[in-house]
Specification:
By secondary structure, the chain is an alpha+beta fold. It is 30% helix and 32% strand.
């Protein structure tokens, strides 16, 4: 089990909590309702890498197993207590790296309300604080203007381009890489986001 997991975090109407089996119906409805909105940015499996798409039950079982191994933290993103998206901490690495990567999505109906930046800030503060990590990374396709705004709002530092970084929408896609280290935000990401947002 990763240090600092499981955990539920909240700021006002926005929260993150461990993704659960009981979220299957809501998750499936959100994914179906937002298929066109999410498809251009969704990770896909290259040919021969396994079945795609996978069911929610298969996905959550894999995530829960990897969470027990300390490799991931799968969160449901909530607005006023209702699930509206997902945020997953991947590639949790100890040793000399002490790092992790964050990926996220939110329903189109709830985009533009500050939910995603708040959720990312909550989780980043948790990772760089109680979870004891040093660096948090986010990889975003250059065309994904909405996600680029999230890291810009939160002050993530651009560190470069990774050619053909992830298999997205059926092909290998370039990504822009961003990071924050614990030294970059001694006051915390959420506090800085509130200050900038206000």
């Amino acid at each position: 089990m990763a240090r600092g997991w499981p955990v539920t975090l909240r700021d006002g109407q926005v929260g993150v909590r461990p993704l659960a089996r009981r979220d299957a119906t809501t998750w499936s409805r959100l994914r179906a309702d937002n298929l066109e909105w999410l498809a251009p940015w969704e990770a896909t499996l290259p040919p021969g890498a396994g079945p795609s798409p996978i069911s929610y039950v298969t996905m959550i079982s894999g995530l829960r197993r990897r969470a027990r191994e300390g490799k991931v933290m799968p969160f449901a993103v909530t607005w006023e207590g209702q699930m509206v998206g997902q945020l997953t901490v991947n590639a949790i690495t100890g040793g000399s790296a002490q790092s992790a990567s964050i990926g996220y999505w939110v329903a189109r109906s709830h985009a533009g309300r500050g939910i995603t930046p708040t959720a990312v800030a909550l989780v980043t503060d948790h990772l760089l604080g109680p979870a004891g990590l040093h660096r948090v990374d986010i990889a975003i396709r250059p065309e994904n203007a909405a996600s680029l705004r999230v890291v810009e709002k939160l002050g993530f530092q651009r560190i470069g381009i990774a050619p053909r970084y992830l298999h997205i929408a059926g092909d290998w896609q370039d990504h822009v890489l961003f990071q924050l280290t614990s030294e970059d935000v001694p006051e915390g990401v959420l506090r800085r986001w509130h200050r900038r947002h206000v």
